[in-house]
Amino acid sequence: MTAFRIPLSDVTLGEEEALAVAQVVRSGWLTLGPEVRAFEEEFAEFVGVEGAVAVSNGTAALHLALHALGVQAGAEVIVPSLSFVATANSVVLAGGTPIFADVLSSTELTLDPGHVRSLITPRTVGVTAMHYGGRPARMAELQEICRAHNLFLLEDAAHGVGGYLGDEALGTVGDAGCFSFFGNKNMTTGEGGMVVAKDPGVLEGVRLARSHGMTAASWDRFAGHAWEYDVIAPGYNYRPTEITGAMGRIQLGRLPGNVARRRELLDVYARELGCDHRGVGEGLVLHPWGERGAAHLCVILLTDPGARDPLRTALADAGIQTSIHYPPSHLFRHYRESQGTGPGDLPVTEDVARRMVTLPLYPRLSDEQVGGIASEIRSFLGPS
Ligand SMILES: *Cc1c(COP(=O)(O)O)cnc(C)c1O
Fold first, then answer.
1. Which of 55, 132, 180 maximizes ligand 1 atoms within 8 Å of its Cβ, making it the mutation to test the pocket?
2. Which atom number of ligand 1 is nearest to the Cα of residue 86?
3. Taking residues 141-149, what's their average pLDDT?
4. 185 CA: nearest ligand 1 atom
5. Best mutation site among 84, 156, 159, 361 for ligand 1, i.e. most ligand atoms within 8 A of its Cβ?
6. Contact 84 CB / ligand 1 (< 6 Å)
7. Is the pLDDT of residue 384 over 90?
8. Does residue 93 have its Cβ closer than 6 Å to ligand 1?
9. Which of 5, 129, 262, 376 can bridge 137 by disulfide, Cβ–Cβ 3.0-4.6 Å?
10. What is the pTM of this model?
11. 159 lines ligand 1 (CB under 6 A)
12. Residue 1: what pLDDT?
C-alpha cells in the first residue's frame, strides 16, 4: 500500500456493496444476468435515456461505441490529446486513426471546436469529446460542426458521470456516450463501463458486439427465454459480471451525494487557494469545473512550469499524493512512430501539460485536509 497520508482518490464503499456482492456469490450466477439488467435499467433512468448497455470497462465501452457508430479501417476520428490514452487507443482498436485536436485554454481544458473544424478531411467520420475533470465540453459548437459535416459526436464521459450540461446528463448529449466505473471514477464497480446512444440501432450494435455477435445471451437461455442463438457479426467478449451490476446499483444511489460533496470540496480548494470566480489565484489557476459539472478532478495550473515538479515533491514529502492528467497522447511513442505526431503539434495541450498538477479529490476528504493541502501549496509558491 501507499505511504501517502492523503491519496489522490479514494473509493466510497460501504456494507451495502459488500452485501450486494455476497448475494451475487451466493446466487451462483456470476456473469451478465439479472443484476446487470437491473443496473442498465436504473442507469438509463438516472441519466434520462431509453436504454443503456453495461460492459466490462470504459475502454470496451469506447471501442464498442466506435464500432457500432461505423468506424472502420481508414476512418479518422478527431479526439483530444489531453485525455486518458484510451480515448485515442479505442479509435485504433476500432480500425480507425485518431486525429489529435488541441484544447481551448488553461481555463478550459476541453476540445477547441475551431481546431476540430480545421482537422476535418474527407476521411473524418466523427469526433470524440471528453468532459475533462467533469467539466462539459463545448457540445453545442461541436454538435453544429458535426451536423454540418455529417459526423458522429461521441462523448467520452468517463469523468462526466453525475454531471450535467443544462438539464442533460453528460454522456447523453451527443450521438453516444461512454462511462467508466474504474476505481478512481465518480462511481465504481472496480472495473466496469456503460454505453448509451440516441439511435436504438447503435445501442443494439453495442449489445451484439459485447458478446460475440450472439442474438441471445447465456442468461436468456438459462432462464428459458431463448433456446437458440445466431451470430450476426463477429463480436468481442466485453461482458460485465453480476458483481459489476450489483455494485453499480448501490454506487448509483450514492452518486448524487458524492458529486455534491466533490463540488463542495472544490469550493473549499478555491477559497483556501485564494482563487477568484474564474479560478485565478496567485501563481496558479484552479481549472473551473462547471456549475453542474461532475467535479471529477481538482486540477491546478501553475504559472511557472519550473515550479511543477518541485511542488509535487514537496507535497509528496508532506504525504500528499498528486498526479498529472494527462501526458498528451500525441507525444506517446506509439503515436509519434505510427502517425508522425510530435512536439509543437498542439501548443495549448503541450503548454498546460507542463504546468498542471492534479490534487486529491474524493468525497471522504475533509475540509480541514483541503485546507492543509492548500496551505502547503501557498507556502511553496511563496508569499504573495
Ligand atoms: C478512465 C478513463 C477511460 C477508460 O476507462 P477504463 O474503465 O479504465 O477502461 C477512458 N477515458 C477517460 C477520459 C478516462 O478517464
1. 180
2. 10
3. 98
4. 1
5. 84
6. yes
7. no
8. no
9. 129
10. 0.97
11. yes
12. 46
Contact 243, 346 (CB under 8 A): no
Q: pLDDT tens, 232-258? A: 899 999 999 999 999 999 999 999 999
List the grid coordinates of 65.
461505441
Atom of ligand 1 nearest to the CA of 60: 9
Length, in residues, of the chain? 384
Q: What pLDDT shows up at residue 226?
A: 79
